Each structure stands twice: as C-alpha cells, then as structure tokens.
C-alpha cells in the first residue's frame, strides 16, 4: 500500500427536492442539523476523511439540486462518480416512486463503464417524522425495490436524529472504494482487494 | 501572449537601453504609449543609461522641496546570499503638502558621493560587465512613491538580523522588504507620523496603516466612505482611489494648482520620458516586456509578501495584457474628475508589476525569507483582501485597448441612494417619470433608499409604466388585484376530491411548500418554523398562483429566492405577484426545462471572460471548465445567495435599471472571477475545487467594489462586450415579446 496515492472517492447524492440530501450530507460530515437549509441551487460538495478497513480515503460527497429540471447539469457533476446515493422521504410516496427515474438518469448522465454493477445505495430518510405515523413507504417495499435492482444496500435514516447516518455512509464509502479500486486495477496493490470482491448486499448488512 | 515567451528579446532590451543613453536627459516628461507601470519601468532603465547627464540638485529645481529623513545602508536582500544584497539610501521628501519616499541603491555597492542628493550616478556605460548587477539595482529602485499610495507599513523585528519594513501600496503590491542595517525604523515611522496619519493596525501590531489625510482627495474620500469602512481599515479610502485612472491618463493631468510642482518633481525623482516615435514605441514595449521578466524575482517576492499580509486571493496586474497595444488616450474634457489630477503623481511611483507567467519562471530563492512573515499573517482580513483585490483588479484594466471611461468609475464614491425628495423631483405633477433614463442612471449609480424602494421597484420591474400617472397607477393596482384574485382562486377552489385526480397540482403545491419554508427564514419578515409565518403563506400563494398563471413553466427551484425580496419590499400580495411575474418575463428562460436560458448566459459569460481576461479564459479552457457551471447559482437567481439580504436589494435594483447593459449581472460575474483570478490559477483550481471556491465566496463579497469593477468592465468592453452576448440572452426579452420594459 505504500506507494498508493491518496484515494478520492466521489459520491453523488440524488433524490427529489426536500427529501433531505443536504441534511444527510451535513449530518454526516459536520454532525449538524438545522431545519433551515435552503434549497440547493446548482451543486455543492463536502469532503470527509474516512477509514475503510485499512485504508484512509477522502470522500467527496456531492449534493445536487433536487428538481429534475436541473438534470442537464448532471453531466458535469456526475462525471467520475464512484457511488451514487439515492435518497427518498419515507413519508412521501412520490419521492420513492422517483427512485427509478433518478437511477436511470444517473446512469445516462454519468455513463459509468459498467452500469450493471455500478454501486448505488438507497436511503429512506426522515423516519423520525411524526414518530413514524406519517410514513407511507414501508421498509419491506423499499427493500424489495433494492433487491430487484441488483441488491442495492438499503438504509433507513434520520438526518435530524442522526440515526443510521454514519452506518449508511460507511457502506457508501466501502462500495465506492470497490468501484474505485476496480478502475485502478493497474496498481499492483489492488489485486487482493478486487479478487475478494463480495456481493454488494452482504457487504453492507451492517 | 508575448510576455511569457519574450526571452528572445534580451538583446533588444539592451539595445533599447542604449538608445536610452542617448536620450536627452532633460527631455520633458511625456506620457506615454504604454501603461504607466511599463513606462516607469523603462524609465528605470533610461535612468541607468543617462551617464553624464546633469546631476540635478533637487533643491535647485523645486522650490519647496525638503528632505525630512535620510537613512543610509538600507538594503534589499533579493537572495539569501549576502553578496546579493543591494544597499541604498532611503529618504522621505516633503514637497508641498505631500510626502514621498525614495530608496535609491548605491551605484557601486558602496555609498554614493557624500552629500549628493542625487540618485544613481549612472555607471552602465562604463561598466558593461556589471550590467546585470546594475540592472538588478535598478529593478529594486523605489522612486518617489507618494505616501498617499501607501496602504501600510509593516515593521518586522526578527530575533536575529536586521529590522526591516515592508511597504504595501494601495494597489496591493508591495515593495520588497527594506532592511535597516543601521537602525532607524522608529525614526522613519516617526517622521511619517509627523506628516500623515499613521495608525497601528488593530489586526496586527506590526502593521501601520497609512493615511495621508493631508491629501485633499484622500480627505474627501475618507469622509465619504467612513460609514462603509470599518474603523481599523481607515486607509481603505485611499484604496478606493482611482489609481488605474491615473495610470491610464496619458494626457498630463496637471492640476491648476500643483501641476507645476508635480512636473518639476517628476524631473527629479521620476524619469524623463523620451518622446516615442512609432518605431520606438514598439521597442519600448518589447523592452518593457523584457524588463517585466527581469522583474519576476522582485514581483514574486512582492506578491508573496503582500499576499501574506493581506491574504491570499489577490490579483495582480496581468502583465500579459500589456502587449495588447498602446493604452489609448482617454477622452479629455470636463468629465475628468479633479480627483484624477490630484493623483497624477501616482503615475510615476508604481514600482512593481506582476505577470502571471513570471511567477512560474521566478526562482524560489526567496521562499525562506518569505516564511519569516508568513506565520503571524495567516489570518488575513477579508476586507483588506477585498479592497486590495479590487484595486489590483482595476489596475488590470489599464492595459486594455478600449478607450472609454472606466477610469471615471473608481475613486468616485457611489452617490447616496435615491431618497423620497429626489424621487419626487423625477415626477411631473401628474406622477409621470419625466426622464426614465436619468432615473435609471441615478439608480444604477446610487441605488434607492428603503423608504421609496417599494414604489420605484414597481417601475424598474415593469409593473408600472414610467409614463403612467398617479391616477392610472391607482387604477392599475385595483384592476390587477382583481386579476390576481381570480388566478389565485383557480387553484384555491380545487377540492380535495379534484386534487386526488390532479397530480400536477399536488406536485407543484408540494414542491412550493417544500421550498417556501426554507426561504430566508433568518429574516425577521419570514422568521419562524414551518408555515407559522403569514408571509411564508403569502410566498406560497403567490408561487402556486404563478405556476397556474404560467402553467407551462410551473414552479422551479430558485423562484422562491427571486420572489422573497420582492414580497419583502412591495409588501402586498397582488402587487408582489405582478412584480414577480414581470421579473419572470425576463428570467423565465433560466428555468426552462432545456436550460437554454442558462446555457446562453453561461456561454456569453465565457465569451466575456475571453474578451476581458484572456489568460483566465485560457486557464479555464485548459482545466476543462469552459461550461462555467460553477457560476450557475450566481446567474440563476441573480446572486441572491451570494449577498446578505440588504445587499441583494441593492444589487437587484442596479441590475434592473438596465442602464449600462441588460446583462450587467454577467459583468458582475467577470468582475468576481477577475478579482480571484490569481488564486484560481495559482491554486490550479479545477472543476470541483473551483465550484467549491465560488460557492464559498457567498457572504464574503464586497458589493460596492464589485459593482464598480463590473461597471468599469462593462464600459471598458463597450460594443465588443455587447457583441459577446447573443440577442435574446436572458434577461433580455426577445424583440417580439418586448413590452412594458421599455421607457
């Protein structure tokens, strides 16, 4: 590992507006939550140093505008992504229904080399709202969707209560790193890692 | 781009210098086909060459000239090597009410003739072998720099070694440290204090801020800008001074009163300018480019020390622009403000130039010296940074080819905002705006007082026609209120049953509701949580109504940002709606699904940068950033997220005047990018880091100076700028649709 350059993992967060993309990112990176974020215009990102197994990596987490109308910008922002995080609000059915669109849109815009195996992670956010009483998307339904789309790891989160956020991003980093090492297979010290590549779902049943 | 590749011009430089030798020493000062700095640089060379020229005794030429401070063995240390030190004599010279500083290196490394007040006794011709050393000496020479040009003096007392000072000019440039081998720093500062205001910086006890209040211009600027400048940065008044103006003035700008003094002073402390034939002009330019290269060491040093003192993101003169051509003659005439003339002296005194390419070439020999200064200056003052950047930014304009009056922009404080009384004076007895253009011009330059803003905005936005009477407007308000209520009822009467079958409606309303509750909640007007504030509900109602009024466009993120200030100012639901609708006539393309409006603006911006800052354009090209997506937020919502609320209001009313350009916001973008160009290029920002950098400028932008920069850029670009922007680019309304916006 000695000669390896520091790894930068690029992670894109997508999902309908208001599902909590900015909040999740800020909770994870800055350990902060405020109810008064502004709607994201354009895009922004935060970075965080993450330990993944024995490696220290820098995760660059991109937060984008949630309105699909701005997707034509995606080409610029999604390029070189190592992992895509799809977020929906468990209290808003439409935001769950749109996961399909977000996933497809991402694959078109980012055009990764191996779309079939590109790592996604799904987060069902805002599980804290109203004690779960306003929830309209069940965990079961979400998991079914994830399974049907190639065993995408799934997490239920609350950015507000900092519930499951670290675990989710740890999984995101892990998956991103897998993707990243595959691309850098020419590096001699990546051989072991790629050989041991497990299936996604088992990697993140954390 | 001749600057970087000018290495082949070495011989020409010497050639030119030798020609300089033959120049009549007493030739009157003439300015100049080049920008000032180049001119004075070449003047340095000429000085060298003027061996055998008369050794003027200053006292014989200038009546009221007085040396008030002399110190020998003050040195510049271009390298760490002791042999490389250049010693010289530091002087403070009083003339009239002004104080000047000079530092003249000794000609042969020793002290020049005892008692001589004269600068170098030129040794070049006799000493071909030591030409390089001689040249170095001349590069570092500080000829009369007026105190009014100084921003600050930093005194540094290293535990080992000599005390030194670093003088930073208002332009943001700095001289290399001057080491006092025989002591005398205290005395030096004391002398200055006797003649000017010298204030110890609140930020850093080693820094003394200079403010030459004896200069009438300074005084007036100080008084004008006191309210805007935080106390510790008092001298920033001078930083706003129109140096570039001066630099650009070719015509001798002799003021009635002190023109003569200035002229004679020039003859002594400044260098005579030979007359420039066309042929020589080119040589001189080549010469200047070469000299610029030789300056690299100095300038790198200067830049770094300055940067350390005032923060990183400074822009320096982009020397490459130098070769664009001779600086045109500014229009003479009564429009030249008197300020310019007072500052004419500054022309001569700008010692250092910066060239971005020099940086790469320059040696790092000085780094360790720099480090002495670094540590205690890491926390640069944003304001100082802004200010300095502004000035250097403006400095860059000097070498443009466009002849216009950007010169007049700087140094002219923005007039106070349009108040009630003055607003009334624009109206005839029936309430018509008599001269809309004059009104727009007035607002463009000064903005609007809050108490009349709510009225005037309605005109600017096109809700009121300028030629409407009081009565007509009253009628309009009533009629439009009815119309609004009808529109609003369209969605408010949607029953729950109907809504179930109306997904588009539900989605829109949901989307609006998601956004209004996170729009400007820190403002008392919108404060609260959720929808517990009536004004939040009004925001929602207007936006949902608009999405029915313009169903094809619908609601799009960013609209709540555009509406919020309008509602706050107009404070009437139906009127805010119509004002917003009028604004959207211009900005709707920003929100089109295909993003065509945004793309055309980003493209225009790219062209403007290409025109106004070619090296920066080339840099963006090199790092594949020509899509300018990093400016997306700026443009989409007219800088709404970049300034605090009050400044957004100030900016928008300026933009909406359409006074200089319908696309003034793009010039704002250029101004901001230019201001940070050096940092962008030095740090080799790429798409992600650039985006981050731009996003983080939010809340740290000085509106006033950016407006001034943008105004200057806009004037400077003139027709060529307008040609960069295709017709129909938002916020222009395409010809066939143009309506209430015109005068």
UniProtKB/TrEMBL annotation, chain A:
<comment type="similarity">
    <text>Belongs to the small GTPase superfamily. Rab family.</text>
</comment>
<dbReference type="InterPro" id="IPR001806">
    <property type="entry name" value="Small_GTPase"/>
</dbReference>
<keyword id="KW-0813">Transport</keyword>
<dbReference type="InterPro" id="IPR005225">
    <property type="entry name" value="Small_GTP-bd"/>
</dbReference>
<dbReference type="GO" id="GO:0005525">
    <property type="term" value="F:GTP binding"/>
</dbReference>
<dbReference type="GO" id="GO:0015031">
    <property type="term" value="P:protein transport"/>
</dbReference>
<keyword id="KW-0547">Nucleotide-binding</keyword>
<keyword id="KW-0653">Protein transport</keyword>
<dbReference type="InterPro" id="IPR027417">
    <property type="entry name" value="P-loop_NTPase"/>
</dbReference>
<protein>
    <recommendedName>
        <fullName>Ras-related protein Rab7</fullName>
    </recommendedName>
</protein>
<keyword id="KW-0449">Lipoprotein</keyword>
<keyword id="KW-0342">GTP-binding</keyword>
<keyword id="KW-0472">Membrane</keyword>
<keyword id="KW-0636">Prenylation</keyword>
<dbReference type="Pfam" id="PF00071">
    <property type="entry name" value="Ras"/>
</dbReference>
<dbReference type="GO" id="GO:0012505">
    <property type="term" value="C:endomembrane system"/>
</dbReference>
UniProtKB/TrEMBL annotation, chain B:
<feature type="region of interest" description="Disordered">
    <location>
        <begin position="1"/>
        <end position="60"/>
    </location>
</feature>
<feature type="compositionally biased region" description="Gly residues">
    <location>
        <begin position="1"/>
        <end position="10"/>
    </location>
</feature>
<feature type="domain" description="Rab-GAP TBC">
    <location>
        <begin position="447"/>
        <end position="659"/>
    </location>
</feature>
<keyword id="KW-0007">Acetylation</keyword>
<dbReference type="InterPro" id="IPR021935">
    <property type="entry name" value="SGSM1/2_RBD"/>
</dbReference>
<keyword id="KW-0343">GTPase activation</keyword>
<dbReference type="InterPro" id="IPR035969">
    <property type="entry name" value="Rab-GAP_TBC_sf"/>
</dbReference>
<keyword id="KW-0963">Cytoplasm</keyword>
<dbReference type="GO" id="GO:0005096">
    <property type="term" value="F:GTPase activator activity"/>
</dbReference>
<dbReference type="GO" id="GO:0005737">
    <property type="term" value="C:cytoplasm"/>
</dbReference>
<protein>
    <recommendedName>
        <fullName>TBC1 domain family member 15</fullName>
    </recommendedName>
</protein>
<dbReference type="Pfam" id="PF00566">
    <property type="entry name" value="RabGAP-TBC"/>
</dbReference>
<comment type="subunit">
    <text>Interacts with non-phosphorylated form of RAB8A; phosphorylation of RAB8A at 'Thr-72' disrupts this interaction. Interacts with ARMC12.</text>
</comment>
<feature type="compositionally biased region" description="Polar residues">
    <location>
        <begin position="35"/>
        <end position="48"/>
    </location>
</feature>
<keyword id="KW-0597">Phosphoprotein</keyword>
<dbReference type="Pfam" id="PF12068">
    <property type="entry name" value="PH_RBD"/>
</dbReference>
<comment type="function">
    <text>Acts as a GTPase activating protein for RAB7A. Does not act on RAB4, RAB5 or RAB6.</text>
</comment>
<dbReference type="InterPro" id="IPR000195">
    <property type="entry name" value="Rab-GAP-TBC_dom"/>
</dbReference>
């Amino acid at each position: 590992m000695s000669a390896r350059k520091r790894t930068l993992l690029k992670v894109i967060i997508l999902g309908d507006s208001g599902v909590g993309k900015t909040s999740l990112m800020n909770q994870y990176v800055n350990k902060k939550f405020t109810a008064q974020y502004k709607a994201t215009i354009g895009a922004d990102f935060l970075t965080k140093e993450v330990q993944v197994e024995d490696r220290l990596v820098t995760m660059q987490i991109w937060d984008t505008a949630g309105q699909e109308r701005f997707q034509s910008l995606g080409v610029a922002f999604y390029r070189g992504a190592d992992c895509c995080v799809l977020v929906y609000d468990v209290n808003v059915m439409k935001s769950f229904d749109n996961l399909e669109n977000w996933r497809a849109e991402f694959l078109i815009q980012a055009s990764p080399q191996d779309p079939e195996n590109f790592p996604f992670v799904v987060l069902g956010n805002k599980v804290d709202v109203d004690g779960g009483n306003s929830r309209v998307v069940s965990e079961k339904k979400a998991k079914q969707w994830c399974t049907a789309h190639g065993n995408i790891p799934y997490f239920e989160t609350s950015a507000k209560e900092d519930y499951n956020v670290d675990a989710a991003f740890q999984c995101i980093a892990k998956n991103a790193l897998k993707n990243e090492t595959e691309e850098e297979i020419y590096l001699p010290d990546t051989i072991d890692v790629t050989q041991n590549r497990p299936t996604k779902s088992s990697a993140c049943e954390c | 781009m001749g600057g970087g590749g000018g290495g082949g011009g070495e011989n020409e430089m010497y050639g030119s210098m030798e020609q300089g030798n033959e120049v009549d020493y007493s030739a009157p000062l003439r300015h100049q086909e080049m920008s000032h700095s180049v001119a004075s640089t070449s003047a340095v060379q000429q000085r060298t060459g003027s061996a055998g020229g008369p050794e003027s005794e200053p006292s014989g030429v200038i009546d009221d000239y007085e040396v008030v401070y002399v110190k020998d063995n003050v040195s510049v240390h271009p390298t760490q090597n002791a042999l490389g030190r250049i010693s010289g004599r530091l002087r403070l010279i009083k003339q009239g009410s002004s104080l000047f500083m000079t530092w003249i290196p000794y000609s042969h490394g020793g002290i020049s003739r005892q008692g001589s007040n004269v600068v170098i006794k030129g040794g070049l011709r006799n000493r071909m072998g030591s030409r390089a050393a001689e040249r170095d000496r001349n590069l570092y020479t500080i000829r009369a720099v007026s105190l009014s040009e100084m921003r600050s003096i930093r005194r540094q007392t290293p535990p080992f070694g000599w005390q030194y000072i670093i003088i930073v000019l208002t332009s943001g440039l700095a001289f290399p440290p001057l080491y006092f081998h025989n002591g005398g720093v205290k005395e030096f500062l004391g002398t200055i204090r006797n003649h000017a205001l010298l204030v110890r910086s609140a930020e850093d006890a080693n820094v003394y801020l200079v403010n030459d209040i004896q200069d009438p211009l300074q005084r007036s600027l100080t008084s004008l800008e006191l309210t805007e400048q935080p106390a510790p940065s008092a001298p920033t008044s001078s930083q706003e001074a129109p140096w570039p103006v001066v630099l650009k003035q070719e015509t001798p700008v002799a003021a009635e009163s002190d023109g003569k003094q200035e002229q004679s002073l020039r003859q002594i402390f400044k260098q005579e300018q030979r007359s420039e034939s066309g042929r020589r002009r080119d040589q001189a330019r080549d010469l200047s480019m070469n000299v610029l290269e030789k300056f690299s060491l100095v300038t790198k040093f200067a830049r770094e020390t300055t940067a350390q003192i005032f923060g990183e993101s400074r822009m320096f003169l982009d020397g490459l622009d130098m070769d664009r051509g001779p600086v045109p003659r500014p229009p003479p005439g009564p429009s030249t403000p008197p300020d310019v003339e007072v500052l004419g002296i500054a022309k001569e005194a700008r010692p250092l130039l910066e060239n971005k390419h020099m940086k790469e070439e320059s040696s790092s020999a000085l780094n360790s010296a720099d480090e002495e200064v670094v540590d205690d200056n890491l926390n640069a003052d944003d304001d100082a940074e802004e200010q300095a950047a502004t000035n250097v930014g403006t400095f860059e304009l000097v070498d443009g080819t466009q002849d216009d009056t950007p010169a007049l922009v700087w140094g002219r404080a923005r007039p106070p905002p349009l108040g009630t009384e003055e607003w009334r004076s624009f109206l005839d007895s029936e309430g018509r705006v008599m001269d809309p253009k004059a009104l727009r011009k007035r607002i463009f330059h000064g903005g609007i007082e809050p108490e009349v803003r709510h009225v005037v905005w309605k005109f600017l936005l096109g809700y009121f026609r300028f030629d409407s009477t009081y009565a007509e407007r009253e009628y309009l308000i009533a009629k439009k209120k009815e119309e609004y209520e009808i529109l609003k009822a369209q969605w408010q009467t949607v029953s729950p049953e109907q809504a179930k079958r109306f997904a588009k409606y539900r989605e829109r309303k949901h989307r609006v509701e998601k956004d209004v509750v996170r729009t400007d909640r820190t403002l008392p007007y919108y404060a609260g949580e959720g929808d517990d504030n009536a004004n939040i509900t009004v925001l929602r109602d207007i936006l949902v109504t608009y999405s029915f009024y313009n169903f094809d466009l619908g609601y799009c993120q960013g609209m709540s940002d555009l509406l919020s200030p309008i509602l706050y100012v107009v404070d009437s639901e139906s009127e805010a709606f119509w004002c917003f609708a009028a604004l959207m006539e211009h900005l709707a393309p920003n929100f089109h699904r295909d993003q065509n409006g945004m793309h055309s603006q980003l493209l225009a911006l790219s062209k403007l940068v290409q025109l106004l800052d070619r090296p920066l354009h080339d840099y963006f090209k090199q790092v594949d950033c020509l899509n300018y997506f990093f400016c997306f937020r700026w443009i989409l919502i007219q800088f709404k997220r970049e300034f605090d609320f009050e400044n957004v209001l100030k900016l928008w009313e300026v933009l909406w005047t359409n006074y200089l350009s319908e696309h003034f916001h793009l010039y704002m973008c250029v101004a901001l990018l230019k201001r940070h160009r050096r940092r962008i290029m030095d740090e080799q920002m790429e798409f992600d880091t650039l985006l981050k950098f731009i996003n983080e400028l939010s809340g740290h932008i000085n509106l006033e100076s950016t407006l001034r920069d943008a105004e200057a850029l806009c004037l400077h670009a003139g027709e060529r700028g307008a040609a960069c922007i295709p017709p129909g680019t938002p916020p222009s309304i395409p010809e066939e649709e143009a309506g209430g916006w015109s005068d």
